[in-house]
Amino acid sequence: MDKEKQPINSYRRNLLKLLLVGGGAFLVGKFASPFINFWNGDKVIDEKIFQNFKFVETGNALKVFDKEGSEIFVFEKDTF
To answer: What domain of life does the native source organism fall in (predicted)?
Structure first.
């Protein structure tokens, strides 16, 4: 009933540490991304309001909204 303790392989231990750190970094990135986008988000350059539609030009896209505020189209600006 007395089992001998075998030493854990160092490669296995390093792999488990790497997976744990990678998973933790992934979760922190998922939770922190809304705050990062809040500070570095798109800034409104131009805004045109019509009777039923609103056109908003940001640094990265031209967005079209309806009168309720729902996003209809997003035209992304491609930079090459």
So the answer is: Bacteria
Q: With beta carbons less than 8 A apart as the criterion, state whether 64 and 71 touch.
A: yes
The single-letter code of the amino acid at 10 is S
Paired with 66 in beta bridges are 53
> H helices then E strands: how many in the chain?
1, 4
Q: Give the pLDDT confidence of 43-77 residue by residue, as tens digits.
A: 788 899 999 999 999 888 899 999 898 999 998 88
β-sheet with 53-58: strand ranges across: 44-49, 53-58, 61-66, 71-76
State mean pLDDT over 24-53. Answer: 81
Beta strand residue intervals within 1-80, DSSP E: 44-49, 53-58, 61-66, 71-76
